[in-house]
Amino acid sequence: EYRALGAGERNPDYVASKEMVLRVHLLPGFGALPLAEVGAGRIQDYRVHRLTPPAELKAAYYKAKGRLLVGHPRSWRRPSRSTLHKEIVCLRQVLRTANRRGWLLSLPDMSEPYRSSNKISHRAWFSPEEYTRLYQATRARARHPKRETWREGCERLHDYVLFMANTGLRPDECARLEFRDVT
Predict the structure, then answer these.
(1) Of residues 136, 133, 119, 96, the one with CA closest to residue 170
(2) pLDDT tens, residue by residue, 70-82
(3) Given its phi and psi angles, is residue 81 left (phi above 0), alpha (psi -120 to 50 degrees) or beta?
(4) Is pTM, for the whole model, over 0.85?
């Protein structure tokens, strides 16, 4: 269903990655569990399962007193936070589809416990000297690009740097800015 509904909207590689996550991680992780039994506790168990090394690897680790045995193939690697997040996003998409079809009455809580915010709290800024160096460099490149075909791009970059620095907009705010937003 996802492939058909996302046709033209989603990159085929992205759709293939969702299929891989389902096939390799989610289906083996949840087994033949009915959708109605996938709750917050089961999702937490899945997270723990994904973050825990297999028993045979742990046994080899402890036999070697804290080091992997020489010649022992390391067949497991702890998934990164973003990898696990992508898997939970895929699970959420499956559960939302089940909810839309009436197979689930409500969606379980899928929030990650014990996680502090990963949002950066400070905003980067240039010192006046750094800003001067930046706009002088972009101005020089706009006037004398390495290739003539790059002239328009270099000029746009220079304008963008001046606009961003003088308005104080964040990059995401600037990217969403439309003509109607400016008075």
Answers:
(1) 119
(2) 555 556 688 898 8
(3) alpha
(4) no
Is the distance from CB of 122 to CB of 53 less than 8 angstroms? no
User: Where do runs of H (alpha helix) occur along 55-170?
Assistant: 55-63, 81-100, 128-143, 151-167
Q: DSSP class of residue 23?
A: I
> pLDDT at residue 17 above 70?
yes
Helix (H, G, I), strand (E, B) or coil at 79: coil
Q: How many CA atoms lie within 13 A of 76 on its CB side?
A: 14
Please enumerate, as own/partner, the contacts of 58-61 that have beta carbons within 8 Å and a separation of 24 or more: none
Q: Give the span between the Cα atoms of 152 and 175, in whole angstroms.
A: 19
162: tokens are 């001046």
Residue 53 C-alpha from the chain's centroid: 23
Task: Say which residue the tokens 């970059």 belong to.
Answer: 157
CB 158 within 8 A of CB 135: yes
Q: State the average pLDDT for the chain.
A: 83
Structure tokens, 170: 């964040």
Instruction: From 60, 84, 92, select the one nearest 74 (Cα to Cα).
Output: 60
Do 137 and 143 form a contact (C-beta atoms < 8 A)?
no
